[in-house]
Design a protein that fits this description.
about 15% strand; alpha+beta; about 450 residues; about 55% helix; binds 1-deoxymannojirimycin; 15 helices; 22 strands
Length: about 450
């Protein structure tokens, strides 16, 4: 018996619809699972480390970065709770921050970390809730951080005393110099005070101006003289988010200079840093002056780069690179801090609960809707639960080979790792991708100007 053509087509469509519905149900289940893991971790933090910077998940105690607490995990986790719809938790945490957090302290803090975690967190929470106290705190912090830019070059000192304004630390790196404009710029836009934008933009521009004749930057620099101290070039820690902010500042502020700086940087990266080995794309290490290869190293920090490539429109390279990141993850069932991609062995076997590989899967899924990226997310989620979950939250690993845990859970696990995992599985309306730019700590900043 011949089945009429129209019946075959309708049956096919039904199967496709069912398949799509099945995938959506599965994603909703996974999003729910991530939310559950967030709550598991949040409750552990509340029980054992409330009022402190970080939970130590094995000893069930806490760690404060500077001997006294700035409530870093609470601050960093706040907008994740908002996006996950954990209203009660988010509201009470915001109330706590608003009534307890003060930056008037005789403590010398790292400008970069306070900018991405606190300034970013306060600004995003302000934009998500309209709570003016968050903006007041952000402005107060911005004022206290500003002295870092009073250097002979305009590039920031590493540390600043929040009460006295005394600065210190003259050897810095592109990431810490160039990952400030999203936050300082947003602060300017929201307060009408241009000093923040101008100082951070100047630092970024000065740094860009110091790139080598082949267009690369090194990994450490004296901010008082502008002389490079470390000339190894890559997209890993110490440099990574400098590139990220060129793309994102062009996006958030429509800043043409940032766009031009990115366009002048990405060619050299693809020429000298990109590497093809065993049929896969990697970004390794090269000397900033000559472009000579200095190492075949990549790692969990480098895994942010597919997201940046995708955001800048290069989906081909982004996809290939994300495939390599997946290989890195699968090598040990969870990714190492550094891998030698020529030998495919760990060069630094720790895993600090980092988010970057998941962040890139989220961007790739957003741009392609290819279910492959949600599948990757599932692999990452399974690995995290299998190797890092503890009775009290999640623990970093001292070795992805032995899977030995270590007593640490950085605040970015709640700010970024679980947020990106959730966003990867949650319906797109959870966060309107087109109207926000996520800072390097995954705090969404919205263009309202
Ligand atoms: C975070 O603090 C930020 O993502 C930063 O850009 C890099 N390091 C951690 C996460 O790995």
């Amino acid at each position: 018996m011949r089945i009429p053509f129209v019946v075959t087509v309708l049956a096919g469509l039904l199967l496709v619809c069912r398949g799509a519905r099945g995938q959506e149900t599965e994603s909703a289940r996974l999003a729910d699972g991530v939310r559950g893991e967030f709550l598991h971790t949040w409750h552990a933090y509340r029980t054992y480390a409330w009022g402190h910077d970080e939970l130590k998940p094995l000893s069930k105690t806490y760690r404060d970065w500077y001997g006294e607490s700035f409530y870093m995990t609470a601050m960093d986790a706040m907008d994740t709770m908002i996006l996950m719809g954990l209203k009660e938790e988010a509201d009470s945490t915001r109330e706590f921050i608003a009534t307890h957090l003060s930056f008037d302290r005789d403590v010398s803090v790292k400008n970069f970390e306070f900018t991405i975690r606190f300034l970013g967190g306060l600004l995003s929470t302000y934009q998500l809730t309209g709570d003016a106290r968050m903006l007041r705190l952000a402005r107060d912090l911005g004022e206290r951080l500003l002295p870092v830019f009073h250097s002979p070059t305009g590039m920031p000192y590493v540390y600043v005393n929040l009460r006295t304004g005394r600065v210190s630390g003259t050897v810095s790196n592109p990431a810490e110099i160039g990952t400030l404009l999203l936050e300082f710029g947003t602060l300017s836009k929201l307060t009408g005070d241009a000093r923040f934008y101008d100082a951070a933009k100047k630092a970024l521009t000065v740094l860009f101006g110091l790139r080598s004749s082949i267009g690369l930057v090194g990994q450490s620099i004296d901010i008082t003289t502008g002389k490079w101290v470390g000339t190894d070039s890559h997209v890993s820690g110490c440099i990574d988010s400098y590139y990220e902010y060129l793309v994102k500042c062009a996006r958030l502020f429509g800043d043409e200079d940032c766009l031009r700086m990115w366009q002048a940087s990405v060619g050299p990266l693809n020429k000298w840093i990109a590497d093809t080995l065993h049929g896969g794309l990697w970004y390794g290490h090269a000397d900033m002056a000559t472009g000579n290869r200095t190492g075949t190293l990549s790692g969990s920090l480098d895994a942010f780069f597919p997201a940046v490539l995708a955001l800048s429109g290069d989906l081909r390279r982004a996809g290939e690179l994300q495939q390599s990141s997946l290989r890195m993850w699968n090598r040990y069932g969870i990714e190492p801090e550094l891998i030698d991609y020529a030998a495919m062995t760990a060069a630094d076997s720790g895993y600090a609960l980092r988010p970057e590989i998941i962040e890139s899967a989220y961007y790739m899924y957003h741009f392609t809707h290819d279910p492959r990226y949600r599948k990757m997310g599932e692999v990452f989620f399974d690995g995290l639960k299998k190797y890092c979950r503890t009775e009290a939250g999640y623990a970093a690993l001292s070795s992805v080979i032995s899977k030995k845990k270590t007593d640490s859970m950085e605040s970015f696990f709640l700010a970024e790792t679980l947020k990106y995992l959730y966003l990867l599985f949650a319906p797109p309306e959870t966060l309107n991708f087109d109207s926000v730019t996520l800072n390097t700590e995954a705090h969404p900043l919205r263009r309202t100007w």
